[in-house]
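dumping the sequnces here before i forget
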Amino acid sequence: MQETDRDLLPEGLEDRLPLAAAVATRVMRSALDVLDIHGYDRVQPPSIEFEKSLASRMAGVQPRRMFRFVDPASLRTLALRSDMTPQLGRIASTSLAAAPRPLRLCYAGQVVTIKGDGLDPTRERLQLGAELIGMDSVAAAGEIVAVAIEALRAAGATGVSVDFTLPDLVDTLAAKALPLAPDAIAAVRRELDAKDAGGLVAAGGAAYLPLLTAIGPFDAAIERLSAIDAGGALATRIAALRTIAARIGKAARLTLDPSERHGFEYQSWFGFSIYADGLSGVLGRGGSYTIKSNRADKADEPAIGFSLYPDTLIDRLAEAEPRRDALFLPLGHDPVHAARLRAIGWRTVAALGEGCEERALGCSHRLENGEAVPV
Amino acid sequence: MQETDRDLLPEGLEDRLPLAAAVATRVMRSALDVLDIHGYDRVQPPSIEFEKSLASRMAGVQPRRMFRFVDPASLRTLALRSDMTPQLGRIASTSLAAAPRPLRLCYAGQVVTIKGDGLDPTRERLQLGAELIGMDSVAAAGEIVAVAIEALRAAGATGVSVDFTLPDLVDTLAAKALPLAPDAIAAVRRELDAKDAGGLVAAGGAAYLPLLTAIGPFDAAIERLSAIDAGGALATRIAALRTIAARIGKAARLTLDPSERHGFEYQSWFGFSIYADGLSGVLGRGGSYTIKSNRADKADEPAIGFSLYPDTLIDRLAEAEPRRDALFLPLGHDPVHAARLRAIGWRTVAALGEGCEERALGCSHRLENGEAVPV
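..and the predicted 3d for all of it:
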């Protein structure tokens, strides 16, 4: 199809057309409904804010990844949100500062980055998530992981798997059982994350080599991690992971990758990634973190939450989406019959003149004598 | 509450907090469901596009009202959408160019302007609407007005009223019954829109004075318009409005203001504004228009549609929103009971440690022996 320049969308930005948009609407509603019935209150922050506000409350949000522009009203820099989590942190520590803790909030919306991520040019994605604020206990972690899995399953994901990590593992071990020179910590973390045994030894982290064996299906990997943990420095973390895993039960396949750091730059003791059958790449991430207070009279708050990026799930479900039934309403039809059939779930498509024909309009049925008749 | 600069949102941008966000979610779902069962397929365009693409397909979208910034990928100017209608036009004439007509599409999302509107500082609003593409007949107009009213009523609006207008009235009359000098047309339109009888005479539009009496409740006003229309130049328009009004019946109060132009700069023969009880200002607008083709092998397309801006409705409904029941799940509760109660509609809030207390968490009920007991 010949198209002029004016029709094209910028790189990494796409329209969702009818079939996929219908699936997206259903996926988002189903997931939000799960968050809602578990007591998570939705909030809706604006799509643009002061850049400082979006970037300052949490590590891990990079201003350089956001579209930024000057606000003629304030003469300050605004940015399109690239992540809704900092907005939830802002709301929790300002408008909802006095609300009881734990505070359960959820959100859904579009987020935009100025550049795609690696080979993926996508610059706008749907984000949906939940945050539990004021607490980052094992019980809180168990609820967050369970709710994330339930939301994804309700949205249509199958074969959900969750990969646990301990984002501050190296710091914890370096402080107690396996001392490291302060300037070696970053390198050891990096080589562990890359699963590079040679690099790990070269970085002075030979003592950390056994961690590379504590990776894989949860039950076996946690046993190996436990065996390594001679000094007991990780005992409470290991017990916490076992408790969370027991809570999940058979709702998802569980794996462990205790030294995974990529994507968990701002998490504290606990992190997890979610995957599902047939979807390449991670579907979402979560974990514990700290909401920084910016007021002298208010302490930082622990929090735990997750974010899902359902675009790949939506695309996959759209491929298998069956054609919907639709009822053609011929010219001169009785609107009372049409309204009655809509009220019991029919989707109607009305003729608006000669030449409107049921097959052309993709209808499966036709209204005849007050009844839906297959065409 | 003492807040630092970092907490504040830019002028005209706001968070929707739990109560209002729950109402917003319900309002948008209810309205979209009505559009869906009438055969309108949702599409989801991106929140940013090339400025040219947003501004060029229709008159009435002003680039100066949009946040604009340079795309580092294309080095072209992007803009945050200030109106989703042009995006629907783009989709209809590109990706869906080959889809059968009439094409029924709908949409919902956030739109942003760089400045508020007059005294209202709001810069981000929800927009929701439907477009019927390939047709702008009387039957199409009747369906669009009826669906707009039904969507608003489903969303919770009461006392809906619709004000009809004829956007090209002056052009039609000037071409036939009441000739005007070409350079007087704009002034006559402006004075009629302002309902300024003196100004109208001064602008050379004395012959148009009787139009100022054809304003008000529909049945009486259309009679007066008919009486004025000596030459019959408006006969088909008057018949069309009567047909649309008959279709609406008692679903809404109808009024006529045939020379209203403000807000209908890009409409053709038909326009309407929607109001509801207790809401100041217009809740939405609609009408017929033309989607300009940008391809030599493709003609312009007639279209008709409407946009609703439900923010004021959401705020109003949130004021009267009752407290929701919520079921507290004490520590050590049986998750099977909790899941069963969620499945039949309960919203649950789980204790996550000592100190979590049902009253503090706003719960109306407590799980005891597998049953919900009021607290």
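Residues 168-260 of chain B form one domain.
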